[in-house]
Amino acid sequence: MARWVGGGGHLVEAIRLDGRPLLRVSQYGYLVAYCRSVAELAAHVALEDLVEVIPLRARDR
Question: Is the pLDDT of residue 61 over 80?
Answer without folding.
Answer: no
